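Researcher: Go.
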Amino acid sequence: MDWLFAAHVLWFLTGAVFLLAEMALPGFVLLFFALGAFAAAFAAWAGLTLGGQFLVFLAVSLAGVGLLRRMFLRVFQGRVHSQAQDAPGQSAGPGGEVGDDAAGKPAVVTKAIRPDVPGEIKFRGSFWRAEAAEHIGEGENVIILGLTKHDTGAYTVRPAAGEK
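Model: Structure:
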């Protein structure tokens, strides 16, 4: 009877290891094996035989992967669109947010930009590195010219010169 007590503790610890591994290697697969191990721990605590515990573990794990993984991926990872699929003004680019179609859109400088030192702009609620051919001070409005040639995580901008 002592092995039954140890079995549910071992299943629980196995589930905890699967959870820790899921955090280190995200992919929403090990999460379901953790849930299966927790279900097997409950089965062991309830007195189910070792074979029954393995069946519970496999059934819960595989059912979770088969039925819930796709939904979890959608909910927790979001979606990435290619330029061909996106609506105008929303194509993927730096950080998966926006792309070259941002050209012509306004932004605000949050860190001063100098010709030799990149600064930062706020565009569509996010902060991006930015470069310009001239000095542009913090708080000034700019127009995005496009992505920089050498850094796809940065934009080339110019002063807005009175544009809104």
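Model: Residues 21 and 73 are 17 Å apart (CA to CA).
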